[in-house]
């Protein structure tokens, strides 16, 4: 069987992992990695036994698919060049710097028939997949995503860097349009928002609260979905799901909650994401996280940014 020819554009912290995953797959030929720093490209290329390129344009005609893991500002311009040539692209989150650019990407992919998948990694987390499979109607969702300062991804704020993961997951669970957004945030290390909290309300009546910080002392990636019979907690880091149900005692109201952990097989989420992308590329089917969904998450992130900006003006 002919191998899929793949390339990785941008091999910093995350792009390097993309290259490693492609190199592991027997049905893939990792043609090369490209980076603005040829030294960085050469270092990663040596690790995964492929060719380094100083320009992504050198990969035109050599690849069938690419991962784009550059700084966010380059997602749209580079993605457009590959998609316009009919080359399938897995673009890291956020899809673009603006929803306008995201629309251009989705329209180009639709026109050329290229597969456009967005790197919302948590969608491939076994905990999230198990939660989605339950098909629960949420009354309220609460998300917390905390991490120490990463010394990377400082070209974007915490909303685009971290919170957008949970925005995407909530939108996939909501099955309802967003009605309103309110948010507040603070800059502590960078000149951008480093910690933020947002409340999203949906037209169906339920709400979602998201807290994200990249200046925390602790690491936490957790979602709790409250529904009419109890609540479900998904821990992304541990890849675990605990189902809590209220038990009733006649005449005594709620007596207690029973807890059951859902048995899950732990997965390498990035590897699963790339394998799913390659399957969609080979079969020309819609990806789990399409460009349209990436754009939707970006639009809500922009609403949160606007609300933070308004709250900041009110404090000044």
Task: Provide the fold topology.
Layout: E1 4-9, H1 13-24, E2 28-34, H2 38-48, E3 51-53, E4 65-68, H3 75-83, E5 88-92, H4 99-112, E6 116-119, H5 126-133, E7 140-146, H6 158-174, E8 178-186, E9 195-202, E10 207-213, E11 220-227, E12 230-235, E13 240-249, E14 253-261, H7 269-283, H8 291-315
Parallel strand pairs: 1-2, 1-4, 2-3, 4-5, 5-6, 7-10
Antiparallel strand pairs: 7-11, 8-9, 9-10, 11-12, 12-13, 13-14
What this model shows, in words?
With 316 residues, the chain is of the alpha/beta class. The protein folds into 2 domains: 137 residues, 3-Layer(aba) Sandwich (Rossmann fold), CATH 3.40.50; 160 residues, Dihydrodipicolinate Reductase, domain 2. The chain has 8 helices and 14 strands. The model has no long low-confidence stretch (mean pLDDT 94). The strands form 2 sheets. It has an 8-stranded mixed sheet. A 6-stranded parallel sheet has the order 3-2-1-4-5-6, sandwiched between helices.
In short:
This protein is of the alpha/beta class and 316 residues long.
Q: In what range is the share of β-strand residues?
A: 25-35%
Give the rounded overall mean pLDDT: 94
List the uncertain runs. Answer: none
- The general outline is globular
Tell me the major beta sheet: 8 strands, mixed
By CATH, the architecture of the largest domain is named 2-Layer Sandwich
**Helix-strand category:** alpha/beta
Question: What is the fold-level CATH name, i.e. the topology of the largest domain?
Answer: Dihydrodipicolinate Reductase, domain 2
| The CATH class of the largest domain | Alpha Beta
Number of helices: 8
Write the H/E string, N to C: EHEHEEHEHEHEHEEEEEEEHH
Strand order of the largest sheet: 8-9-10-7-11-12-13-14
CATH superfamily membership of the largest domain, which one?
Answer: Dihydrodipicolinate Reductase, domain 2
Compute the number of structural domains: 2
DSSP, total strands: 14
Give me the Rg, rounded: 21 Å
């Amino acid at each position: 069987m002919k191998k899929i020819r793949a390339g990785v554009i941008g091999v910093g912290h995350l792009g390097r992992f993309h290259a490693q995953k492609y190199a592991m797959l027997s049905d893939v030929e990792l043609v090369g990695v490209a980076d603005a720093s040829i030294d960085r490209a050469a270092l990663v290329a040596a690790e995964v036994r492929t060719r380094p390129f100083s320009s992504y344009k050198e990969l035109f005609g050599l690849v069938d698919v690419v991962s784009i893991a550059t700084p966010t500002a380059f997602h749209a311009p580079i993605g457009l060049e590959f998609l316009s040539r009919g080359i399938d692209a897995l673009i890291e989150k956020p899809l673009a710097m603006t929803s306008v650019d995201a629309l251009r990407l989705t329209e180009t992919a639709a026109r050329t028939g290229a597969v456009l998948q967005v790197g919302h990694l948590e969608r491939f987390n076994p905990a999230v997949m198990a939660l989605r499979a339950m098909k629960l109607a949420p009354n309220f969702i609460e998300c917390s995503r905390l991490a120490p300062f990463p010394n990377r991804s400082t070209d974007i704020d915490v909303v685009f860097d971290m919170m957008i993961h949970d925005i995407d997951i909530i939108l996939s669970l909501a099955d309802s349009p967003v009605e309103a957004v309110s948010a507040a945030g603070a800059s502590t290390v960078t000149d951008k928002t480093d910690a933020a909290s947002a409340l999203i309300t949906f037209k169906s009546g339920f709400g979602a609260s998201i807290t994200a910080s990249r200046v925390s002392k602790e690491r936490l990636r957790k979602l709790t979905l409250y529904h009419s019979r109890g609540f479900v907690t998904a821990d992304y880091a541990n890849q675990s799901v605990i189902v809590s149900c209220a038990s009733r005692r006649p005449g005594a109201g709620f007596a207690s909650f029973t807890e059951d952990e859902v048995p899950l097989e732990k997965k390498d989420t990035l590897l699963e994401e790339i394998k799913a992308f390659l399957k969609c590329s080979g079969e020309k089917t819609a990806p789990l996280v399409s460009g349209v969904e990436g754009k939707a998450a970006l639009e809500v992130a922009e609403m949160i940014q606007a609300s933070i900006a308004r709250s900041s003006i009110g404090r000044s």
